[in-house]
Amino acid sequence: MAEAPRSEGPNLSRLFEATGVTGSEVNRILREQIDLAMRDTANGMMPQLRARARWYATTVILALYGGGALVAAVLLLITLAVPAWVAALIVGAILLIVAAIVYALAKSRTHPESSPVPGKSLSGEPHRPR
């Protein structure tokens, strides 16, 4: 029995000749199928994502109002010991310090060196080592 000649990879030209399809047609068909699959997936997930986003937005709004109420309560509590303007100054300074700490944490955790795409920063510019 004669063996078929072995090659390093599939011989696509023979396949294209046998089916009458060109490589560019295969490329076009594959791209169309991938686009169709991506659109179907995205359309199926959109209602769920929209509903989840609404719930999260509602949660954030309620948390902001709750945080504001707690800040007001702390202000009123401190006004029992000092004048109102001093209480507002103390609470404002504490909030600014906490904001600076959160900003530093966010910056350190999202530094361009920790970009998910190698060689690119989060801003899209190429990363240049210092």
What does this structure look like?
- This protein is an all-alpha fold and 130 residues long.
- Helices cover 69% and strands 0% of the residues.
- The protein contains three helices and no strands.
- The chain has helices spanning 12-19, 23-78, 84-109.
- Helix 2 packs antiparallel against helix 3.
- The longest helix is centred in the middle third of the chain and has 56 residues, at 23-78.
- The radius of gyration is 30 Å and the shape is elongated.
- The mean pLDDT is 80.
Largest sheet geometry: none
The whole-number mean of residue pLDDT values reads: 80
Report the radius of gyration as a whole number of Å.
Answer: 30 Å
Low-confidence stretches: none
Order of helices and strands: HHH
How far apart lie the N and C ends?
A: 66 Å
Extended strand count? 0
Helix/strand-derived class?
Answer: mainly alpha
Helix content: 55-70%
Topology:
Elements (H helix, E strand, L loop, with lengths): L11 H8 L3 H56 L5 H26 L21
Helix pairs in contact: 2-3
Highlighted features:
3 helices, 130 residues, elongated, mainly alpha
What's the short version?
The chain is mainly alpha-helical and 130 residues long. The protein contains three helices and no strands. It starts with 11 loop residues before the first helix and ends in a 21-residue tail after the last helix.
